[in-house]
Amino acid sequence: MALFLAESVLPQNLRERATLEQKVAALAEAALSVQSSLVEAQISNDLTRAFFVLESSTQALIREILSRAEIPVTLVKAVRLVGADSEQVRNNVAKVRYLVEWNLPEGLTMEQYLARKKANSVHYAEVPAITFQRTYVCEDLTKCVCFYDSPDEETVYEARNAVSAPVDAITETFRIPTPK
């Protein structure tokens, strides 16, 4: 099984928290029906975007699962989880308040990315108000999404500067718990 990041720009009819909670439950059920699972669902505070991480065998199956749950999809990519394991994520071990998107530079290899991350991660200590939680890096090395617990957006930028990592987009999010 592989991990996949699925992103959605939510249509108007899904921009209510109660509706999204129902959709996440439907998504989790649809995933289980095809031997897959929903690892986490992070929703932008303005209810316009959703980020889902699912475990499954293929990208096509992820698209089918989202379609069954009637959730539009704008991106599905295989990802590697860095900084946590999927069981920790499933069990809500860590709080996330901000999601940072970074479109990776061309020519970067996974080995270079992981070495850079390891070398620079020690610098998070320079910004003690923030806690790095995890990163999902696309296997095709086009982008990554990093999850943080931080008091505010400014502190996220400080931490990203400390670890020499750019920000292409930052989104304040909340998590919809995944049904067990």
Largest sheet: 8 strands, antiparallel, barrel
Portion in helices: 25-40%
Q: What's the order of the H and E elements?
A: EHEEHEHEHEEHE
Roughly how many Å is the radius of gyration? 16 Å
Amino- and carboxy-terminal Cα gap: 19 Å
- Please state the second-level CATH architecture: 2-Layer Sandwich
CATH class: Alpha Beta
Indicate the overall shape: globular
The percent range for strand residues is 25-35%
Average pLDDT number? 94
Parts with pLDDT < 50 across at least 5 consecutive residues: none
CATH topology heading: Alpha-Beta Plaits
Describe the structure.
It is a single chain. An eight-stranded antiparallel beta barrel has the order 1-3-2-8-5-7-6-4. The chain has one domain (2-175): Alpha-Beta Plaits (2-Layer Sandwich), CATH 3.30.70. It is an alpha+beta fold and 180 residues long. β2 (37-44) and β3 (49-56) form a beta hairpin. It has helices spanning 17-32, 59-68, 86-90, 110-121, 153-162, and strands spanning 2-9, 37-44, 49-56, 75-82, 98-103, 131-138, 143-149, 169-175.
Brief sketch in words of this structure:
The protein is 29% helix and 33% strand. It has helices at 17-32, 59-68, 86-90, 110-121, 153-162, and strands at 2-9, 37-44, 49-56, 75-82, 98-103, 131-138, 143-149, 169-175.
Write the layout of secondary structure elements.
Elements: E1 2-9, H1 17-32, E2 37-44, E3 49-56, H2 59-68, E4 75-82, H3 86-90, E5 98-103, H4 110-121, E6 131-138, E7 143-149, H5 153-162, E8 169-175
Helix pairs in contact: 1-2
